[in-house]
Amino acid sequence: MATTPLNSIEITNEYPLKSAVWYPHLKFVDNLTVFRIGAILFHFLPAIFLDLLTLVTGGRPILLKLHRNVWNSLNTLEKFIFTEWHYDNKLGIKLAKSMDPVDQQTFCIDIETLSWEEYFKNMHMGVREYLNKESPKNLEAARKKDYILMWFHVAIQLGYYYKLCSFTFLMSKRMVEQIQEQQQQQLS
């Protein structure tokens, strides 16, 4: 029986990267324009700010370049990433059901028996260890860093929402003042 896969963020938080420069936050959107606006607001603008801060403190800015590379890669892979794919597996299911129990055990092709939770955890741990070259020994340190990055992430989000609310309030106030001025002028 298949299990429900874990939320990607839960796995990412359980096995975070020590080399992460920001808290991982994954949102699935079905609109490419919304995705691009989000990338600009939550990737490029913070990258520019942090690169400027790095430059001022004598460091070497790298985040904007990194995000440009990711942006270019996403543009290249756009067709595959932003297309919903449907596969017909009727023949595979038929084959799995027609196999005798010994062959079913030897050639496990029925994905209903797959533990998706275990699969995604193993995949994430493999990416962490073999692609990012991070030792399982630094997992606790990575979790502590992830916790700190989460609070920075929350603070930045609150700052964005505060600015958005302030801007909305200011614009509303100006519109009300303009309407009141027009009404005063009409009464005069």
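(the above was protein one; protein two follows)
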Amino acid sequence: MFIRQKLGAYLRSSMVYIQEYGFATTLHGLPHILVPTTHIIEKLVWSGMVLASILGALLMIKGTFARYNSNPSVISRETDFRSWNTPMPASTFCLMNQSDPEKVSSYIERHWGINSSNNKYSYYRNFVEDVANFHMEDLSKFSKYSDDPSLLGVNMLLLALQVIAPINATTTVFNPEYNSIKYHPIVSEVGICYSFSSPLSEIFSVRKENSNSNGKVPLCNFLNSHCFTRIENLPQTSSIKFFVHSPLEVATLESSANIVEPCEENDSTFKFFQIIASKELRALRPDQRKCKFHDEPGQMSELPSYSYNICRMECRKKLSLSLCGCAPFIYHSNSMSASYLFI
């Protein structure tokens, strides 16, 4: 009995406070609900509207929190351009015909024991040249070799490296501080090429001793109108396919290229457009920021770095392995255990 009286007194005092709050509040609807003379139907209508408003507010808060949790990053535009130091674009060039005739003949004689007087010499020469000049758009060329047992076990990457012509190109950079950066050979979807100022290309380097030469990227101040890179003394015996890309990317099938014919010069001018991530962005999960840093490879990746093009290359390699049981030798990298063969 005593507890019941205490509880009743507590409820009555609580109702007094609620009525005082309802009469004084500016929240629309509560005064109509708490006024004793209000008809019961009117009270029910106002109660439903207040509950619906509370539910709507909770749903909006939930949606706002979900958007923040999934995409909390903010994009801003900096205007202090006088202090901008922008990385110079990286570049990759590929000779469209890079086989050395003397090295091709030497390889055929050493590997198959035949010379130019043999009837099958032209067949093997075509095979060696196709390997040396291979890129992903040339897959159909190799169908004619698929039933030849004499080509089984040929390490195509080593073959290509042994028969390509040497390159003695010289590179000049606007700042002597960067003259140590040189073009060095890599193997990628566009074939055996030469890359400059691309740290990610170290993954695909075919000369490990030179892999550190591309780790430094030239920086150009926004106010400096004389930032340039010049390459000279290229071979005049072949057309050249030239790619310009981000230092944190590699050239792939989708990359656009300029074709430079022998004895021609190509002069290209580029405008800077750079997106920079703040240090705080690393604290967010990749699914929150909707992007990855280049040192955040996927869980299933065989490579130590990430980029959009590298991701596409890995997907194509895995698709080739799943459908054919093999993959093109160009998917070799320093981090992979072995090169892959077509045959």
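Reviewer note on protein two: DSSP finds eight helices and nine strands in the chain.
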